[in-house]
Amino acid sequence: MARHADEHLVTSRVKLPRRIVDRPLRQVSKRLLMALGVLAVTVFIVWIDRAGYHDNSDNSVDLLDSVYYATVTLSTTGYGDIVPYSDGARLINVVLVTPLRVLFLIILVGTTLEVLTERTREEWRLNRWRSNLRDHTVIVGFGTKGRSAMQTLCATGLKKDQIVIVDPSAKVIEAANADGFVGVIGDATRSDVLLRAELQRARQIVIATQRDDTAVLVALTARQLNRGAKIVAAVREEENAPLLRQSGADAVITSASAAGRLLGLSVLSPVAGTVMEDLIQQGSGLDLIERPVIKAEVGRGVRETDDLIVSVLRGHRLLGYDDPAAGPLQLTDRLITIVRADPAPEQNGKTD
């Protein structure tokens, strides 16, 4: 029962990217050194002005008495056994010792206050994130396939705050947070985990799990929660692709078969394999993109445009570049073209 309770707590965690702060042990060490510093300053003040203090036990104040007085004064209001009786000692207590006492208490209580403040701030950030999140992308599984999908999406201009990572591993989510992504720890086959990723308001969903059966369950759950989102999933075995499509996936990529085809193409022609690798790697060299037809291209043939058109998407029909029905182009068509990738702004030496 305790294990199930721990698993339920893990599935309910949403982790936002954290700001860079000191480690807790380092923060506590700093506060402890500051408190000891305040104590040492107070002891020094009392020791220097010890002639103005009176000890009820032996009428004199030595170094040990100064340490004792500083300790009980900073942590409490004192016991009255050692008291300042001269005007100078009382003035020093008002001007110096009392502010030091306040500072000492602030340092000690500061850790607790910081924890409470951090929890409140984190809750506020989480609520703000939920209220502002719309039309985002949910990536289920942040292994090799999920990371590659993320890199491709970011290369096409998708911002990091528009991507939510879902993975059962806390270490994986921590790595995603370190990269600037919001992460949800939990089993994506559970609807409550996907709801915490705000999947019901997502525009597109990428399923990149390690197991095909898990991918099918995630697709079923995701399609039930969001009827209009585009779902793209990866499977290892070709025979599981139809089942995943029936589960609600709009596109299914067979990772093993795709890698095998690329290997076979590279054997026949290493250069052709390099070109294909370049096409599927967004942001460098040649990119394969989908774009709408512009007004200047309406009525033209496929070969009369400036870009190299591979296919024309007309309604639900995908027409090849050599299909006579592909031309003339219509305003409602979408083109699959090969274009030269634009260098990133930082590569050009430009910054926003």
Put simply, the count of helices is: 11
Give the averaged pLDDT, no decimals: 80
Order of helices and strands: HEHEHEHEHEHEHEHEHEHHEEEE
| Strand arrangement across the biggest beta sheet | 1-6-5-4-7-8-9
Percent range for β-strand residues: 15-25%
What is the SS-derived class?
alpha/beta
Helix content: 40-55%
- Name the quaternary structure: single chain
**pLDDT below 50 for ≥5 consecutive residues: which ranges?**
1-12, 344-352
N→C terminal distance: 53 Å
Structure description:
The protein is an alpha/beta fold. It has eleven helices and 13 strands. The chain has helices at residues 2-11, 24-48, 63-75, 87-132, 144-155, 170-178, 191-196, 212-225, 241-246, 255-268, 270-280, and strands spanning 13-15, 53-55, 82-84, 137-140, 163-167, 182-185, 204-207, 230-235, 251-254, 286-292, 308-314, 317-320, 334-340. The strands form three sheets. It has a seven-stranded mixed β-sheet, sandwiched between helices. Strand 7 (204-207), helix 8 (212-225) and strand 8 form a beta-alpha-beta unit. The longest helix has 46 residues, at 87-132. It is elongated and about 110 Å long. Residues 1-12 and 344-352 have low confidence and may be disordered.
Give a nutshell description of this structure:
By secondary structure, the protein is of the alpha/beta class.
Topology, pairings included?
Layout: H1 2-11, E1 13-15, H2 24-48, E2 53-55, H3 63-75, E3 82-84, H4 87-132, E4 137-140, H5 144-155, E5 163-167, H6 170-178, E6 182-185, H7 191-196, E7 204-207, H8 212-225, E8 230-235, H9 241-246, E9 251-254, H10 255-268, H11 270-280, E10 286-292, E11 308-314, E12 317-320, E13 334-340
